[in-house]
Design goal:
The chain is mainly alpha-helical and 504 residues long. It contains 21 helices and no strands. The longest helix has 35 residues.
Amino acid sequence: MAHDTQSPTAIFKPVLVLISGRSIGFLAAFAIPIVLARVFSQEDFGTYKQLFLVYATLFGIMQLGMAESLYYFLPSRQRDAGSYIVNALGVLGLCGGLCLVLTLQQEAIASLLNNPGLVGKLPYIGMTLLFMLMAVVLEIVMTVRRQHLAASFAYGLTDVGRAAAYVVPVLVVGTLESMLTGAVMFAIARLAVTGWYLRREYRGQLRPSRLALRSHLSYAIPFGLAGLIEVAQINFHMYAVSWYFDTVTFAIYAVGCLQVPLTDILMTSTCNVMMVNMQEKLRSGKPRDLLPIWLDSVRKLGLIICPLVGILLVVGHELIVMLFTDAYERSVPVFMVWSLSMLLVVILSDGVLRVFAQNRFLVFQNLVRLVIIAVSITWFLQTFHIVGAVMVTLLATAVAKMIALARIKVLMESSVAELLPWGALARTLTLAGAAGLLAFWLKTALLSFAPALPGPLMLVIVAAAYVLGYVVLLLGFGPMQRSEKRMLVDFTLTPFARLASQWK
């Protein structure tokens, strides 16, 4: 029988192509703070982090949903695609201009972030936002036009180019202003490439339309509201730490909140595939039929995220010192709690809620999270110092996940026992913990018998021991199917088999 829907494999391939580009980009972006932490003083590094906290906040809010809503309008209204793109560029340009005006209120922002050193540097952020906001449509249009390889290339090249534009001026000149100048120049170049691409793809079609703008805004503004709330709750703890403490302490905290690229890549890719499969199943089945897809996705993601958190907890001290030097050793406790929060990533609740079009509930969920953080963060900071900011964020996220699970239980008509793969998650956590104990014992022994062992070498040895121990335990006791265990064996042994054949 013929089917009018794409197979999961047909959808998964372009997702993998996009992930490959984003993976390269994540790694390039990950390198930026590592280099800058070695060149800048802690005061300048904290100022850099605060400047790009302002950037990230305004970049997330000021898109107003105009760019993301192109995913809806371009495929469904192809005749007017050029008009929707021009309207998006126009609104984003106005928002970029507003960002520039806001960043000129330098004394107010410097007072909010408790850092007079921001004065004179914030206009660079405003100019960067002016150009980067309009250029955000590039990969979206490529993806809608099914130019997945080009979009992947654009994602990767953007972050590699951005890393070079930020780092090279600092290595040559050595000042924060030189890096900010590089950021502005890169933003101008990216917008120029975006303009060239759009003119090539939509010759003669790029003209504004008032009618299209009206429908575009009516669809996009609710997204903008949800984005505003989400950005606020994500960044609130950063602003609180900056307000209560000095710039050096903020730098310590920002390093502790290190974003591990692999986590976001794994979560996003798993969630995307899960949503595609759920949407296909929902067209021909009942909500309850989505349970196996949900349970399998959570189980598989847990098999990777749980040991990743375990490794970070065991080698967290060595990792932070290796990446950011001894000057940031005080970041380690923050990083430990931050790593624990990654366990909640396994519960892909937002993906399920989007499949069921629960947009209002997502707004409510983010509001609850924001309120918990805003009400509680002062007490947590006073009681636990900067670690308290991560603790309250972890608490708020856990509460939001429980609320989401309660809603998912109703949507998928399941019982509490069926809602999550409880047994599989418990076994995975137990195995990850057991591997962690073995790796920690090895680390303690190495510190006792080889105290002069370099930190990076210690990290590699202990992490390798953890991975080996976890894989052995997983093959023996893990909640995996036979086919998955065979894949794991092949993946683990293939590099060694190739090495052995080359040695022969």
